[in-house]
Specification:
Helix content is 36%, strand content 19%. By secondary structure, the chain is an alpha/beta fold. It folds into 2 domains: 2-100 and 241-269, Leucine Dehydrogenase, chain A, domain 1 (Rossmann fold, 3-Layer(aba) Sandwich), CATH 3.40.50.10860; 103-237, NAD(P)-binding Rossmann-like Domain (Rossmann fold, 3-Layer(aba) Sandwich). The strands form 2 sheets. The protein has a 6-stranded mixed beta sheet with strand order 2-1-3-5-6-4. It is globular and about 55 Å long. The structure holds 2'-monophosphoadenosine-5'-diphosphate (ATR). 2'-monophosphoadenosine-5'-diphosphate is lined by residues 127-132, 151-153, 156, 188-191, 197.
């Protein structure tokens, strides 16, 4: 029986066990997927234990996505470029490969929710943290070469843009101006998430053909997306990114690339 897990701290709110259990059942596979709480100081020992116990692999979440890099044997190109690992595959010889599937989640969700979207026009990315990094990587892989990153802390936007040329950085105050010719606006910040302040942006300057993508999924219907709907703009919600990033991880652990169905979406949003 194949075993997989998600490691992090805290870990009780993770949706990953629910998602993987749904697929194990749906595809009639014998396997297990559990949440394992591992604190930062115990990461090396915790990972060693999982490998020793014969796990096929594990997902990695806060706060280990960067610190796991020095513990794996090698990185796939995406994890290396994004400088973060969310999936570790344990090979039969016990060696570990670090991968990143967040960019896949972002791209697949955009393709499935806004199939007509073309990455040719300017893209405005709000935020410059870990999620933004995987998203800028995803957008460039999709062919977007006009990416502007706006972030509260300008220095973080500059650092991210410098790592992904020809992306450029702009201060947060420039947002109204940046929206004027944006084809896609992506919120990668935690603003609008339950318990966080709202993302207070007036979408009026966006062109009528613009798409608005919010990676926040709790709530699904964020204030940003509600505003976009009032303007009749195309919207992309965040739940698909969470679900799609889990698909290639499931395939690596259990051998089947799973699909997303309505039952799964309902379970995750419940
Ligand atoms: P994640 O991995 O989810 O991207 P992160 O790396 O902590 O998390 O990044 C959070 C992002 O949300 C950052 O871009 C952060 O801006 P700063 O670089 O200025 O910290 C942004 N963010 C968080 N709270 C914010 C707020 N109140 N206003 C504006 N941006 C905020």
């Amino acid at each position: 029986m194949k075993k997989a897990a998600v490691i992090g701290w805290p870990i009780q709110h993770t949706k990953s066990p629910l998602i993987h259990a749904h697929w194990l059942e749906k595809y009639g596979l014998r396997g297990s997927y559990e949440a394992v709480a591992i604190q930062a100081d115990d990461l090396k020992e915790g990972v060693k234990r999982l490998v020793g116990e014969g796990y096929s692999g594990f997902n990695v979440t806060v706060p280990h996505k960067q610190s796991i890099i020095s513990l794996v044997d090698y990185l796939r190109a995406d994890a290396e470029r994004i400088a973060a690992v969310n999936t570790v595959v344990v090979n039969p010889d016990g060696s570990m490969e670090g991968r990143n599937t967040d960019h896949f989640g972002f791209t697949e969700n955009l393709k499935s929710r806004a199939p007509e979207y073309k990455t040719r026009g300017p893209v405005v990315v709000l935020g410059a943290g870990g999620a933004a990094r995987s998203i800028v990587y995803a957008l460039q892989n999709m062919g977007a070469n006009d990416i502007v990153i706006a972030n509260r802390t300008y220095a973080n936007a500059r650092a991210l843009a410098a790592a992904f040329p020809p992306a450029i950085a702009k201060p947060w105050e420039a947002i109204p101006d940046l929206l004027k010719n944006a084809s896609l606006l992506v919120n990668t910040t935690s603003l609008g998430m339950k318990g966080q302040p709202q993302l207070e942006i007036d979408l009026a300057p966006l062109p009528d053909h613009a798409t608005v993508y919010d990676i926040v999924y709790n709530p699904l219907d964020t204030e940003l997306l509600r505003q976009a709907k009032r303007r009749n703009l195309k919207i992309v919600t965040g739940i698909g990114m969470l679900l799609h990033q889990a698909r290639p991880a499931f395939e690596a652990f259990f051998g089947t690339l799973p699909d997303i169905d309505d039952d799964l979406i309902k379970k995750v949003l419940a």
